[in-house]
Amino acid sequence: MKKTTFTLCLLLAFILSHPVIAQQERDSLKQVEYRDSVLMEKISSLPNILEIEKLPSSSYYKAKYKIYFKQPLNHDDTTLGFFKQRLFLLHKDFDKPMVFTTEGYAAEYGNIAFYQNELNSIVDGNEILVEHRYFSESTPENAGWQYLTVENAAADHHNIIQAFKKLYTDKWISTGISKGGQTTLYLVTLYPEDVDFAVAYVAPLNYGVEDGRHESFIDKNGTRKERKAIRAFQLELLERKDSLIPMFEKHINEKDYTFRIPIKEVYDFCVLEYSFAFWQWVADTEGIPGEDAGKQAIFDHLISVAGPEYFSIESGEGFLPFFYQAANELGYYGYDMEPFRDYMDITDTDDYLSEIFLPDSISDIEFNYRTNSLVFDYLEEGKPKIIAIYGEHDPWTASGVDVKRKGMIYKFVKENGHHATRISNMPEKQKEKILEVIEEWMEE
């Protein structure tokens, strides 16, 4: 460390003692400052830009900005007021493609200096990362839930795209992961001319609040041996329920979790959730404790895969907008409790989403089937250019995009993949095909 510091001091003394080098350094800094001021001036001149702040970024980009964009609370009635929507612009060049990332939740990670969407390097492009309305810093003040709709969110994205297309005139690619992937599908459905094509990762399109396809998917997922190991662990949790509940309650008290249902029912839901969460994120049965494992090992594994935090009021606060959307338009998944009914304190799982995740003030919601019908119809009858990527074992694949027409939508399912499936970790042949399609669409 001392040697490094001494070397740096010598280098600084060398630069300062050589006026030509020092002047070159000052000129370089001035060029950077000039470029930044020109970029910020151009961006600030766009409609509805409220605030802009330069952020640190990786060397891949020339500049990165946090921007607050003015959006109507309700796009059908602008007299109701406006709110600030947060987005991040990662600038490479105005004449390069734009990757438009529709985040389905908060977008805090946009602040990370080294953040980069994998599509940026594939298409050598810029990126706009948009935080979803009603999440984190993009939450309207004193607004009713009735304005948190798919149509309003898609209109948010449409407004941003139309504004930035004044500067970025090359190809536009919409993308998103999970709920963000859903959001991308809604955007291309409602505004098909806004982007040239879309890449949706692990994006579900559910039939209802409890879709119905996930339970049978899980029941057939993996090998017979894997399913047997998962079922045996769930039954072990229930058979040891009386001895594990004290540990469960202690964990809850230490974390200060509270719930809308009794603790023993929370435990039952954790057992039911285990198989869904396991296939979504783990998908490797080697780590499941056997029936001869001690209480601590059994308990620790449950907490690591499907702990009570997910069902807590505290955890749900940041995701409350999502659960409202799931009950209202997006849909969700159900549970099959038949194999465990004799062991459980709960009698059924009907309307569990409202009972567990929504406060009484918004729990009585009638599901809007029209929204996803629009997407289904567009995928069947429109002219979408979509690459849909899924993992074989991810339960959300059960309600994934259903491709009925070849040549319009490309669906790729990674063997043994789960919810973290991306282009970068696809098998080589599938990756090559994806890149081939992207290249073809980029050249059109």
Key terms:
disordered N terminus, Rossmann fold, 9 strands, alpha/beta, 9-stranded mixed beta sheet, 444 residues
Give a written overview of the molecule.
By secondary structure, the chain is α/β, with parallel strands linked by helices. It folds into two domains: 38-207 and 370-443, Alpha/Beta hydrolase fold, catalytic domain (Rossmann fold); 213-362, no CATH class. Helices cover 44% and strands 14% of the residues. It has helices at 2-16, 19-44, 118-123, 150-164, 179-190, 213-220, 224-239, 241-255, 263-282, 295-306, 313-330, 352-357, 370-381, 428-443, and strands at residues 49-55, 63-72, 82-91, 98-102, 126-130, 172-177, 197-201, 386-391, 409-414. A nine-stranded mixed beta sheet has the order 1-2-3-5-4-6-7-8-9, sandwiched between helices. The longest helix has 26 residues, at 19-44. Mean pLDDT is 92; it is low at 1-17 and 20-31.
Overview in brief:
44% of the residues lie in helices and 14% in strands. With 444 residues, it is of the alpha/beta class. The longest helix has 26 residues, at 19-44.
Record field, number of beta strands = 9
- Low-pLDDT windows of residues: 1-17, 20-31
Written as H for each helix and E for each strand, in order along the chain, the element string is: HHEEEEHEHEHEHHHHHHHHEEH
CATH topology of the largest domain: Rossmann fold
N/C terminus separation:
54 Å
| CATH class descriptor of the largest domain | Alpha Beta
Query: What portion of the residues fall into strands of 2 or more residues?
Result: 5-15%
Q: What is the total number of structural domains?
A: 2
Main sheet attributes: strand count, strand direction, barrel closure: 9 strands, mixed
Radius of gyration (CA) equals 25 Å
Quickly give the CATH architecture of the largest domain.
3-Layer(aba) Sandwich
Write the CATH homologous superfamily of the largest domain.
Alpha/Beta hydrolase fold, catalytic domain
Task: Write out the strand line-up for the largest beta sheet, numbering strands in chain order.
Answer: 1-2-3-5-4-6-7-8-9
- What is the overall silhouette? globular
Structural class from helices and strands? Answer: alpha/beta
Average per-residue pLDDT, rounded, comes to: 92
- Counting H and I runs of at least 4 residues, what is the number of helices? 14
**Considering DSSP H and I runs of 4 or more, what fraction of the residues is helical?**
40-55%
What's the oligomerization state?
A: single chain
